[in-house]
Specification:
Elements lengths: L2 E10 L2 E11 L4 E5 L6 H9 L6 E6 L9 H4 L2 E4 L11 H10 L10 H7 L15 H13 L5 E5 L7 H18 L2 E6 L2 H7 L2 E6 L2 E6 L1 H7 L4 E7 L2 E7 L2 H12 L4 E6 L3 H10 L1
Parallel strand pairs: 3-7, 3-8, 5-6, 6-7
Antiparallel strand pairs: 1-2, 1-4, 8-9, 10-11, 10-12
Helix pairs in contact: 3-4
Bound molecules: adenosine-5'-triphosphate.
The site of adenosine-5'-triphosphate has 11 residues, from α1.
């Protein structure tokens, strides 16, 4: 396992914001921590990055406890924070070359040209960082996170502020990093669509607890029994949740025949489950 989290707890003062969180990630896996604002996603990821000290539980990342990891470990991990607003006067290409040079005692960083192409910033190589658009800035954040060719990459809400095209390109980049380079990726998002597109496995975190976990297909299948059937008879509307809507509708027809009106079967989507889970 590239990372293992067992019984992780975090308290800020008197308030516990993570309660017994446990999960792991295999090499090359794209794992998504999905949850609403305040669920504890950033706290979890910051503990795994070694930026925050946990209150209790076992955490192992690339074979070490991040709380006492060293520079060699750091060089194997890539981090993209929620927002990073530094180096405004540097030019994009120079900044990446410079940051890459920090990794040379440990490994060969990405050559700047290749890296710029990978994140779609070739045209912006000569621009000053402060002149970049929000989406370009975020791509640069990702480039900074991967310049040292990390084995494990943490992405905290990476697509905030992206337009749809930038989002799609970013999703392709994440897929490529995992497939072609075998990078293990842990990504936080509050966007279900993003999680289902990107993740090999989704962990749904709400109020400091993992309430569901699985592949997007497993999560969808787990709630496939929750169809809602709506109909009306004599101007009166009804609705019913059922695990077997076909059989239920057959029953309605035999009971009401031609009286049956406004029949509608609504299949539960992953979004329905997610919303139900985070609302409770
Ligand atoms: N430094 C801190 N001191 C006290 N409480 C904090 C601190 N950082 C976060 N919290 C609280 O911990 C809880 C989890 O916050 P966290 O930022 O981990 O959530 P999140 O899921 O990343 O949310 P978002 O999607 O808004 O970034 C929240 O209730 C938050 O208010």
């Amino acid at each position: 396992m590239v990372l293992t989290v067992d019984g992780l707890r975090m308290q800020y003062g008197e308030v516990e914001v993570l309660h017994e969180v446990s999960f792991d990630a295999r090499a090359g896996e794209v794992l998504t921590l999905l949850g609403p604002n305040g669920a504890g996603k950033s706290t979890t990821i910051e503990i795994l990055e070694g930026f925050r000290l946990r209150s209790a539980g076992q955490v192992e990342v690339l074979g070490l406890d991040p709380a006492d990891a060293d520079e060699t470990w750091r060089a194997r991990v890539g981090i993209v924070l929620q927002s990073w607003r530094d180096h405004g006067n540097w030019r994009v290409g120079e900044l990446l070359g410079h940051l890459g040079s920090y990794y040379t005692p440990y490994k060969q960083p990405w050559p700047t040209g290749e890296l710029l192409a990978a994140v779609g910033l070739t045209e912006s190589a000569g621009k000053k960082v402060r002149m970049l658009s929000g989406g370009q800035r975020r791509r640069l954040d990702v480039a900074i996170g991967i310049v040292g060719r990390p084995e494990l990459l943490f992405l905290d809400e990476p697509t905030t502020g992206f337009d749809p095209e930038a989002r799609r390109e970013f999703h392709e980049l994440v897929g490529r990093l995992a497939r072609e380079y075998g990078t293990t990726i842990l990504l936080t998002t509050h966007d279900l669509d993003e999680a289902s597109r990107l993740a090999d496995r989704i962990l749904i975190l709400t109020a400091g607890r993992i309430v569901a976990a699985g592949t997007p297909a497993q999560l969808t299948a787990a709630i496939a029994g929750e169809d809602e059937v709506r109909w009306s008879v004599d101007g009166q509307s009804f609705r019913k949740k059922t695990t077997d809507s076909t059989e239920f509708v057959r029953g309605l027809f035999s009971q009401y025949g031609a009286e049956l009106r406004e029949l509608e079967v609504r299949r539960a989507s992953l979004e329905d489950t997610y919303l139900a889970l985070v609302a409770s």
